Amino acid sequence: MLSLINNNLFKKIGLIILFSLQTALVYGGSLDYQNRGDRWEGIAPNPVSGLDIELLSALVDYNEDWQPLPTACKLKFYLPKSVEVDLTVRELRSKHFYKMDRVLPKSRWQTGFNQYQWSTGDVIAALDLNIPKLGVVARLTKTASSAERVAPVVLYHSVMPKTVNGYLFAFKVGSGAKLKYAIYQGNSENPTATGDLGKQSVGEPFVVYWNSAKAKEGSYELIIDGHFLDNFLPIHQSVRFYHKASLK
């Protein structure tokens, strides 16, 4: 088993090196992860997180037609109060190792709606990225952890939805696991929604979808519980977020 793991690791490292060499030959260093003024963006191989389970994305369920590729990607999210936001965009599956983070907004993130946009011309167009397969997290804590606080994000380019009717929370586990989830409003002991996520494979993204069309505005908590398949050790992940039904 150890040799199999090592072989897979070496293969992954080899693919990263090969892809980096290919892009370097074609584009020089223009696609490297680097400072682009108000953000850092580019090709950045993902380090191993070391987490039992990792939040990859927290998005409002909404999708426009991204063909042809627009000149900019836009984000919008709601903050109940003004706090620092760690905004990160990356691929759910690391095909190109794309990453955008360390965003410097024109003004401080404020209570209410916040927006940000960045050009697709610097990196996204050259990599021919599939925008709907990007994950976005507006994290309200400094680092990823088993107790997350996020602001769900609308990813769009032209037309904003008027209401929020659902959310997509994407995760991956560090080892094979069996999981279930529940969503609670405020301090309620009775879940608003529950579901069985079944068995999840290591490194494979999976999504928790919540239909929020009839949900009241306010604070919610998504809790994922389960155990690893190899040793039955428990897994616990919580994600706190604020549901703002109207985007006006």
Tags for this model:
single chain; 248 residues; mainly beta; Immunoglobulin-like; 5-stranded antiparallel β-sheet; 2 helices
Protein model, in words:
The protein has two helices and 16 strands. It has a five-stranded antiparallel sheet with strand order 1-2-6-5-8, with no helix packed on it. Strands 9-16-15-12-13 form a five-stranded mixed sheet, with no helix packed on it. The protein has a three-stranded antiparallel sheet with strand order 3-11-14, with no helix packed on it. The termini are far apart. The N terminus is likely disordered.
Classified by CATH, the class of the largest domain is: Mainly Beta
* C-alpha Rg (nearest Å): 19 Å
Helix/sheet category: mainly beta
Percent of sequence in beta strands: 35-45%
Distance between the termini: 54 Å
Query: Helix share of residues?
Result: 10-25%
Number of helices: 2
List the helices and strands in order.
Answer: HEEEEEEEHEEEEEEEEE
CATH topology group of the largest domain: Immunoglobulin-like
Strand order of the largest sheet: 1-2-6-5-8
Biggest sheet statistics: 5 strands, antiparallel
Which stretches of 5+ consecutive residues score pLDDT under 50?
A: 1-21
Based on CA inertia axes, which overall geometry fits? globular
Q: What's the structural domain tally?
A: 2
What's the mean pLDDT score? 90
User: What would you say the CATH architecture of the largest domain is?
Assistant: Sandwich
Task: Tell how many strands the DSSP assignment holds.
Answer: 16
